[in-house]
Design a protein that fits this description.
The structure holds two protein chains of two kinds. By secondary structure, chain A is mainly beta. The model of chain A has no long low-confidence stretch (mean pLDDT 91). Chain A is built from no helices and nine strands. Chain B is mostly beta strands. In chain B, the strands form two sheets. In chain B, strands 2, 4, 5, 6, 9, 10 and 11 form a seven-stranded mixed beta sheet that branches. Chain B has a four-stranded antiparallel beta sheet with strand order 1-3-8-7, with no helix packed on it. Chain B has no helices and eleven strands. Classes of the chains: A mainly beta, B mainly beta.
Chain lengths: 109, 116
């Protein structure tokens, strides 16, 4: 079973910052928080992964509070091409990767 | 960049046929995976492999088999295709890594298989 809860869908406008929050109350000590992005008719693509505090790469930032029971994926200045499904996963190397239903992000012009 | 290539984007087969889906990765990854993705059900793991000639059942292996004769290639076989196997099939690969951190999986773009 997926260990995470995230909103089913979100709408935003081009140029805005989008924050998608994921809840994972039962996160274990060895678990990492990982986000994937999936466009229609494509496989999921890894976006970012973190364990604690903040991680940033060229695509997104991941904010993780001290208790690690939630995390927030932040997409700066989104464009129409960011319309996709975003999956939050919490797992370690011994877990099977299980994708939930994700958050369907729709960017409006 | 890691490249995971699936042999076909679209495939149409008939009930009872033996179907082969091929997947090749170019990054020398130890691990390879086959999933199917259906609306409302997310991705479900069919089989995975941690090494050449090694295979492990995932959540829904019934009706499928796999072959991994070379490190870079992982094949999914539908022994006798049925209409309920119509789906999007996704292959992925990942390195093993060290410690407890999970290594991200790299996915192909999928094969949309229709069984008539």
């Amino acid at each position: 079973l997926a260990k995470t809860t995230q909103p089913i869908s979100m709408d935003s406008y081009e140029g805005q910052e989008v924050n998608i929050t994921c809840s994972h109350n039962n996160i274990a000590t060895n678990d990492y928080i990982t986000w994937y992005q999936q466009f229609p008719s494509q496989g999921p693509r890894f976006i970012i992964q973190g364990y604690k505090t903040k991680v940033t790469n060229e695509v997104a930032s991941l904010f993780i509070p001290a208790d690690r029971k939630s995390s927030t994926l932040s997409l700066p200045r989104v464009s129409l091409s960011d319309t996709a499904v975003y999956y939050c996963l919490v797992l370690n190397r011994d877990d099977k990767i299980i994708f939930g239903k994700g958050t369907r992000l729709h960017i409006l012009p | 960049d890691v490249k995971v290539t699936q042999s076909s984007r679209y495939l149409v087969k008939r009930t009872g046929e033996k179907v082969f889906l091929e997947c090749v990765q170019d990054m020398d990854h130890e691990n390879m995976f086959w999933y199917r993705q259906d609306p409302g059900l997310g991705l479900r793991l069919i089989y995975f492999s941690y090494d050449v000639k090694m295979k492990e059942k995932g959540d829904i292996p019934e009706g499928y088999s796999v072959s991994r004769e070379k490190k870079e290639r992982f094949s999914l076989i539908l022994e006798s295709a049925s209409t309920n196997q119509t789906s999007m099939y996704l292959c992925a690969s990942s390195p093993t890594g060290t410690g407890t951190q999970i290594q991200p999986q790299h996915f192909g773009d999928g094969t949309r298989l229709s069984i008539l």
